[in-house]
Amino acid sequence: MRSKKLWKAGTVGLATAASALTLGAVTTPAHAAAPSPTVHAQGAWHTFKNGHQSHKPTTSWHGSYYTRPNGVRIIQVNARCWGNDSTLKVRLRYSNSRVGIRTAKSGHWACDGRYRTVRIHNAGGELYWPDFHVDHKHTIEYWMQYYK
Q1: With contact defined as beta carbons under 8 Å apart, do 142 and 54 qualify?
Q2: Which one-letter DSSP state was computed for residue 32?
């Protein structure tokens, strides 16, 4: 009785292995390994050069200016501050030759040490920078990123 169980288990294992080898040979021909020319690489978040900065305790500050790289449509600023007695107000501002200086998007949240994000999806300006305002003096940390 024991030898029949081993024999049955062995045949199932051999049959499964044989079918896997057969299917593998059929589904993966040698010419299918090359990627098609219509496949695009997936984008990733990149921090602007000198895009991660912090400032000593202050109530108002604007970050550095960043030029939007060609083809970039999504830009965001991540910011945080510490001290639960204040609210951080963040404006993502831009400038271009047609409209001048405008606010693309803004947000506000408590200074609880967690970073929050202000993001735009249809970036078209030439120059971007963040503005920060806090009720009381606090350290502000931010980083500007783009998706490409």
Answers
A1: yes
A2: G
> Does the pLDDT of residue 77 top 60, yes or no?
yes
Residue 92 contacts by C-beta under 8 Å, 6 or more apart in sequence?
75, 76, 77, 103, 104, 105, 106, 118, 120, 128, 130
pTM of the model: 0.70
Mean pLDDT of 100-129: 95
Annotate 64-121 with DSSP letters as a single string.
--EEPPTT--EEEEEEEE--TT-EEEEEEEEEETTTEEEEEEEEEEE-SS--EEEEES
Can you say whether residue 82 is alpha, beta or left, with left for phi > 0 and alpha for psi between -120 and 50 degrees?
beta
Containing structural domain, residue 94: 45-147
Q: Which two tokens stand for residue 37?
A: 């020319």
Q: How confident is the model at residue 103 (pLDDT cuts 50, 70, 90)?
A: very high
Asked if residue 64 and residue 133 are part of one domain, the reply reads yes
CA 86/CA 35 separation, integer angstroms:
53
pLDDT exceeds cutoff 60 at 22: no
- Residue 74 domain flag: yes
